[in-house]
Design goal:
Protein name: Pyridoxamine 5'-phosphate oxidase family protein
Strand order of the largest sheet: 2-1-5-6-7-4-3
CATH class of the largest domain: Mainly Beta
Distance between the termini: 44 Å
Pfam family, one: PNPOx_N
Organism: Actinomadura physcomitrii
Largest sheet: 7 strands, antiparallel
Number of strands: 7
Strand content: 15-25%
CATH topology of the largest domain: Pnp Oxidase, Chain A
InterPro entries: Pyridox_Oxase_FMN-dep, Pyridox_Oxase_N, Split_barrel_FMN-bd
Order of helices and strands: HHHHEEEEHEEEHHHH
Helix content: 25-40%
Structural class: alpha+beta
Number of domains: 2
């Protein structure tokens, strides 16, 4: 349901000019930081990053963001303008991969623990089911059957403000975890054939970790 602005007090922005009038122009430094090729420090960041988010959309513009994680350096640098990200065993929905088949544009955000900055990479992606570099992507005996190759069009570091505001890396400031277990949430929001007890066993930390690479 679309909320009528006149009944809610919502004032919508409908043009780039209006947006710029509110935010102002970006700083020169923010504009000049864009690059199209990997710098040595980009490579070092990727070598230390164990986690990234991959944003995709289908041909109609329906969006998805998928988390990817592996040991640091899992994003394999092929050359100064190309990286590859291995796929690992998951739920097989393949939302992002299906999007790439109809719209190759992707956005990636790489994080490094304790660092507030993030590395953003935008480009065009393709799926490959075999390549010589797959041998370099083996983790705990698992050789990927699929990888996402990203041809870089834009790359830059994003400042730390968002993670500083969120206190993401400040465990001493984290609120107490009062959320129910993941099994209880799953049972509450969707139909499952499994009982709650079976789901608790399935999502148990130690047991679940054994399945990360197909075990």
């Amino acid at each position: 349901m679309t909320l009528a602005p006149e009944s809610t007090g919502i004032v919508e922005i409908t043009s780039a000019e209006e947006l710029r009038g509110l935010l102002g122009a970006p700083m020169r430094r923010a504009i000049d930081k864009e690059r199209a090729t990997l710098h040595a420090w980009d490579r070092e960041w990727l070598a230390r990053s164990p986690f990234c988010l991959i944003a995709t959309s289908d041909a109609e513009g329906n969006c998805d963001v998928s988390p990817k994680g592996d040991p640091p350096g899992f994003a394999h640098v092929l050359d100064d303008t190309t990286i590859a990200i291995p796929d690992r065993p998951g739920n097989r929905r393949a939302d992002g991969f299906l999007n790439v088949l109809s719209n190759p544009h992707v956005g990636l955000l790489f994080m490094v623990p304790r660092r507030g900055e993030t590395l953003r990479i935008n480009g065009r992606a393709r799926l490959v089911r075999e390549a010589p570099f797959f041998d370099d992507m083996v983790v705990k005996g698992h050789r990927p059957s699929l990888a996402l190759i990203v041809d870089i069009e834009q790359i830059f570091f994003h400042c730390a403000k968002a993670l500083m505001r969120s206190r993401m890396w400040k465990p001493e400031e984290w609120a107490e975890d009062t959320l129910p277990s993941h099994a209880r949430i799953v049972k509450a929001v969707q139909y499952t054939e499994e009982s709650l007890e079976e789901l608790e066993r399935h999502y148990d930390g130690a047991a679940y970790e054994k399945k990360l690479y197909g075990g």
